[in-house]
Amino acid sequence: MPPTIESADQLDDLLSEPTAGVVETLRRLEGDLLILGVGGKMGPTLARMAARALQQAGVKRRVIGVARFSNRELPAWLQKHGIEPLTCDLLDPRQIDQLPEAANVVVMTALKFGASGRPDDTWAVNCWMPANICQRFAGSRIAAFSTGNVYPLTPIAQGGSLETDSLAPVGEYAASCVGRERLYDYFSRSAGTKLSIVRLNYACELRYGVLVDLARQILAGEPIDLSMGAVNVIWQGDANAMTLQSLGHVASPPFILNVAGPETLSVRRTCEQLGELLGKPPVFAGCEGPDALLSSGQLGHRLFGYPRVPIQQLLRWIAHWLLRGGELLGKPTKFQVRDGKF
User: Fold this and answer.
1) Fold of the domain spanning 8-205+234-264+293-308
2) How far is CA 184 from the centre of its chain?
3) For the segment 63-75, what is each residue's pLDDT rounded down to a tens digit?
């Protein structure tokens, strides 16, 4: 790994670098790959990772990225990297019906922020849309994104929720995400659709993520709320790789996978480390609670390997990126929220 990342192009190269496991998974899975919701934060580099893996595997298959494309520059970027862009409003079942056949589907669509004020939109995007997708692609392998928010807050010393733990959503968004998973369960049972459900908690790169949020607060001199005293973080490139490899484990009933970093990070200690790298001490507010939203990623690490980018490397990259004025997405994670109101 390079000591620093100097440009968005270099960053995207690293985020989309396939692991040997991704190359092997996509080499042996027959059929094209359809990525629904490719326009989000993770979609472009996940799609590019898939295209690079297929090229390295020496097999010719289509990678198709579907979105409404509010970012007008994204279709050209996707085409440049071997992905076919396809415009579609995935809330319209008639448009979903017109999508091309694909043996492999990754569903990345979700609505989180503003969920408390827009409950109808939240349930439509997080439940009704997946139901329509399942009906359209009943015979496909589907890797579907979910979230660690389906779990309750757990004691920090426990090490995070396991895939087998009971779900206990807090708030409108989390409840809709449990609803989404229940619909995937239903279609898997009733139609035999093979799925993996990816509970992500939290992906991070240099333009957004929990660590970027904390570093920006430190630089701005803003008090950092310690009530959510611990967090899981994983390099987005590693999250991309685990998600694509989960297509090789789809099952009925669905295969459940937590995608999370290996450490339970102390927010206080992580901010102190960032402060040293940024040359500015953090300012704290409040004190750590006894519990936090945490997921255990051990199953994914056993199946797909340990994350390639350690947290200390990621902290150094982020500090350098911010100090040099690197671009940011302006999409805070709001990971500190404890009442589920996003």
Assistant:
1) Rossmann fold (3.40.50)
2) 18
3) 999 999 999 999 9
